[in-house]
Amino acid sequence: MLVQDPSKGNDVDSIFNQARQMGAVEGPIDNLLPSSSSRSFTGTGRLLSGETVPSAPQQPETVIHNIVFWSNGFTVNDGPLRRLDDPENAAFLESIRKSECPKELEPADKRSSVHVNLIRRDEKCPEPEKHHVPFQGVGRTLGNSSTPAMAAPETASASVDSAPTPSAGLVVDETRPSTSIQLRLADGTRIIGRFNHHHTIRDIRAFVDASRPGVSRTYQLQMMGFPPKVLTELDQTIEQAGLINSVVMQKF
């Protein structure tokens, strides 16, 4: 793995310039982000298997990833902020310099083409919003110590992004490769779960179940794409399923 001093070639300008030299093409950002102060360029979509894309009416699925470079790091799709000088990101950034798809973004279906959008933002990545959790508990009414008061009902703002407590059996090992997965639940809630690459689709379901106890388990998990990929192999790992830094939807 190549590790470089951030002051010697690991800055954003260097990454963009090297990617350009390797064939990346400038493109408009209007369809990606609303900010007119941003600059971006995109690489050419390629089949990872090396096969030539046929001119048949049905084209293979195209997987799109947006990588945003901020003044204090970069983000992949809706994932967390990552540092340019972190050795764990060296291989990822080296692939970007070569105008190649980073290995962690390769789809499970090798016939799919991958389109990577590189977006430049001249500002710091905004901090994630912190959502207030209302107090809930049991109290006693004044004047009647034997009658407990009703617990405060859940607020109607269940659709606000909030991270649930993972199931008791799910432990993220910080010493091993990990990833963030955005989960879009059927009730409209969006939550971010953190997993190791060796965790399975079964672990993702356990995470979802822990966030919504009592809700029916007769749902499907689908990886967002065109078309969405139904995740039915419960013992398949996140890495094997191509779910690293992905978006997963819950469907009943």
From TrEMBL:
Residues 174-251 form the UBX domain. Residues 62-126 form the SEP domain. SUPFAM superfamilies: NSFL1 (p97 ATPase) cofactor p47, SEP domain, Ubiquitin-like. It comes from Eucalyptus globulus. The keyword Glycosyltransferase does not apply. PANTHER family: NSFL1 COFACTOR P47, UBX DOMAIN CONTAINING PROTEIN. InterPro entries: NSFL1C_SEP_dom_sf (IPR036241), SEP_domain (IPR012989), Ubiquitin-like_domsf (IPR029071), UBX_dom (IPR001012). It holds the Pfam family UBX. Residues 156-165 have a biased composition (Polar residues). Keywords: Ubl conjugation pathway. GO terms for molecular function: ATPase binding. This is Plant UBX domain-containing protein 4-like. Gene3D superfamilies: Phosphatidylinositol 3-kinase Catalytic Subunit, Chain A, domain 1, SEP domain. Residues 35-57, 127-172 are annotated as: Disordered. The keyword Nucleotide-binding does not apply.
